[in-house]
Structures are given as structure tokens and as C-alpha cells.
Amino acid sequence: MNRTFFCTNFTAMPHELYMRRCLDLARMAGGNAAPNPMVGAVLVHNDRIIGEGFHRRYGIAHAEVDCIDSVLPEDRHLIPESTLYVNLEPCAHHGNTPPCANRIIKEGIRKVVISNTDPFEHVQGRGIMLLQTEGIDVITGICETEGRWLNRRFFHFHEKQRPYIILKWAATADGYIAPADRTRLAISNTTSQHIVHKWRTEETAIMIGRQTALSDNPRLTARLWHGMQPLRIALDQQLQLPRSLHLYDQEAPTWIINEKEDTSHGSIRLMQLPFDNDLLPALMHELYVHKKLSLLVEGGARLLQSFIRENLWDEARILTAGHTLGNGIAAPGLSNAISAFQTTLSGDRLEVYTNSTTQFTYPAGSAL
Ligand code: AOF
Ligand code: ZN
Questions:
Q1: How many whole angstroms separate alpha carbon 154 and alpha carbon 148?
Q2: Phi and psi of 176, rounded to 5°?
Q3: Whether residue 305 has pLDDT greater than 70
Q4: Ligand 1 closest atom vs CA 97
């Protein structure tokens, strides 16, 4: 049976309530699950949660196994009479771990409630079929929109065969992202800077253009937040950026996209690609091949505008400070943008947009 509910409040149906808990658990993995999805699971017996778990990190136990293993010895006999909630279809393949569907069957669980089906080519409905073949009651589509939003990077990657692209910039109140002479200037406040570092830990790659690398000399590391360090990517057509820049400091895996050389030095990869009209799609393909689920584009204005011109973006996060500059480098202009969410961060305004031509709807009240 396929039913769709919308998760709007906490007085909702129990299915929605427990699925919301799965989504909250799943989110705790942050960027650690990639390239896997964020998945949480809850085992419920007579309206009492007897087990909870999530896919904590790529390569280790999936959510269902983490959840079942958390059940206390005195509750283990209740497992077959319990309902398993999980926000992604249980897997049916042997990957880093054995299939979760087999474990569910072995435990004698009779009812499984799912949010989203798994688009990964080795699963794609096989997990659900396996469970149903064993006579297990499977309900899908609970909190479907919320589940797709949480795992938008994963779904996008498998459905569109390219990373989920997030554009980010910080502008002054009068719309400038840098002074005219391009000198480095912190536009957003320290709260925003912490949030930006948190965002870095949540994406698998982060990118800047040549001019930004040169004038800002950014580290592009996640120093102000605990978590994963994304791959750093910079464009440098003629490979002329000075090797003294932080980008070359070997502190994080780094790709320098250029036309001259294809070599590796420690964690630095000089990647040769033709600098023609297909440069960005070609780079997106490389990211897909290297299983990079998502890309955060941090500037500058020209690079951001190129992504916008090619409609190669899925989400935009714009920070606007209270102060003005009078003149400078103008902030990019978005097209196809739908306003999703806005808030303030100690005085800076954060606006989040989604792309009207992509399939990811921001469910009101959801976290980013
Ligand atoms: C689940 N529960 O918690 C997750 C699932 O490389 P592996 O073996 O970890 O498998 C990764 C694939 O398994 C991933 O692409 C996705 O299809 C599924 N993830 N499945 O049943 C989980 N994280
Ligand atoms: Zn699994």
C-alpha cells in the first residue's frame, strides 16, 4: 500500500511522529554519511520506542542494524511484534555491510514503515519487494517530501547524475560582495561565519574561481565547526596561481582545474579539463564519477554567475549584512529562484532559495 502524508505538526498520526524521529536521527550524521544518504530508524512496540539508530558514518552499520542492535536484552523478545520505521527503503544489496532487508526478515519484524524508496541502482525497490515477498506489511511515502529534502544531495546525485549544487555569497546591504579593488573584506558577521563553516562540513566539495583564490587566499577549511573537511576546488586555467596560496598547503584534498597539467602531488590534484563552454558540466561529471554528492560554490561573482547562467544550481544561500559599501563588485543575480526560507543570524539576513526547475521542494519548518 502506498500512502502519502504531510508532516505538519506534532499532533499528527503516529506514523508521521515516528518518521519525524527517524529524520531527526538521520540528520545527526551530517556530512559523515556521504556518499551514502542520511538514514535514521526507530523500532516501536505498542507506542513505546524500544530501539533507535542511524547511519553514523560511511562504511559502518546502516540505520536499521544500528537501531535493532540498540534494543535492550529485556526487550529483544518484543522485536517481532514491533514496527520498524526508517526514512529510506531498507537495502537489498551486499555493499560495505550485508542487506538490511535480510536482517529485518531474520528478526521476524512484521511491519515496516518507510519514507522514501532508494534510487541507488542496486536497490531501487528490491528492498521493499524482498520484505513483501516474506509477507511483511510495508507502508511507504510517510513524510516523503521531508525525506527527499533531507537527502536532496543523495537523491539528486542518483537521479540527475551530478552533484547537488549550492551557491553561497555574502553581500552588503547595498548589494556588493567585495570592494572594487577586490581586497579581502569580511562582509558577514562571526555568527554567519560559523554557520558557513558548518555548511562546509555538510558538503563533499567546495569551489572558488581564480580571482577569489588570488585576492582572498582562502583556506576553505571547516575550522569553526567540527565535522568533515570537504574537497577544495579552484579554477586556474593557465596554472598561474602562486604555490604559496593556502590552497596548496596540503591541509585538505584539493583539485586545481587547469588546461596545462594532469598530475597529483600529495593531496593536490592538478586536473586538466578543456576551458570551453562545457567546462562546468565536465567538472560536474568528474565530481559524479568521484562520488561527490554535493558542491558548495563560494565565489566569486563571475563563477557564481556562470553557474546561474547555465542553470547549474539547486539551492542558493545569500547572507546580507546590515552595512553598506557604496561601490564594489556587484552580487550575482539569481534566475528561476523560489524563496524557501529566511532568518537572521545576529543581524545578518540569511535567505535561502531553491531552483524552480529542479524537483526539491523545501518543506516549511524543515532544517536546512
Ligand atoms: C539502508 N540503510 O542506513 C543506508 C542505506 O556502501 P554501503 O554498503 O553502505 O551501501 C550504501 C547504499 O545503501 C547507499 O547508496 C544507499 O542505497 C543505501 N543506504 N540503506 O538500508 C541505511 N544508509
Ligand atoms: Zn542497509
A1: 9
A2: -115, 140
A3: yes
A4: 8
